[in-house]
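Private note to self, pasted from the team thread so I don't lose it. C-alpha cells:
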C-alpha cells in the first residue's frame, strides 16, 4: 500500500515538473543557441588582416529588399510604375523624404528669461 502511495506521489511530482514547459517548446531553455566547438587560438597568423579587408561598396543607394543587387534595381527603374513592386515604389518615396526632411523654424521660448548679472541689480552684491 505504501509503495503505491509513493509511486502516485512520485508520478504526480514528475508530471508537475514536466508540465512546466510545453512539449512543442523543446527541451532546451530559450535564448541559448546550440554552439559548436570553436577552437581557441590567439595567434595573429590565423587571423591575418581580417579586420582591415576592403569591402566593395556601392555608391548608389539601393533598397534592402534588393539584397545588394544593383542590376535588379536598374531593371525595376525601366519597367512602368504600375508594374513595379510596392516595396520599390515605397523605397523611392521614403528615400526622397530622407533626402529632403521637413524642418520647422524655432520660435523663442517665452518661459525662459535671460538673467542679467550686473552690479546695480537688487539682490546681487
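Design output:
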Amino acid at each position: 500500500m505504501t509503495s503505491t502511495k509513493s509511486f502516485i506521489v512520485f508520478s504526480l511530482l514528475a508530471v508537475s515538473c514536466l508540465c512546466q514547459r510545453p512539449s512543442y517548446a523543446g527541451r532546451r531553455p530559450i535564448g541559448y543557441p546550440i554552439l559548436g566547438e570553436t577552437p581557441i587560438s590567439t595567434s595573429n597568423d590565423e587571423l591575418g588582416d581580417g579586420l582591415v579587408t576592403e569591402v566593395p561598396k556601392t555608391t548608389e543607394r539601393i533598397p534592402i529588399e534588393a539584397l545588394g543587387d544593383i542590376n535588379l534595381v536598374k531593371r525595376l527603374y525601366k519597367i512602368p510604375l504600375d508594374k513595379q513592386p510596392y516595396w520599390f515604389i515605397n523605397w523611392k518615396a521614403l528615400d526622397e523624404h530622407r533626402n529632403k526632411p521637413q524642418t520647422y523654424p524655432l520660435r523663442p521660448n517665452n518661459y525662459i528669461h535671460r538673467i542679467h548679472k550686473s552690479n546695480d541689480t537688487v539682490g546681487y552684491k
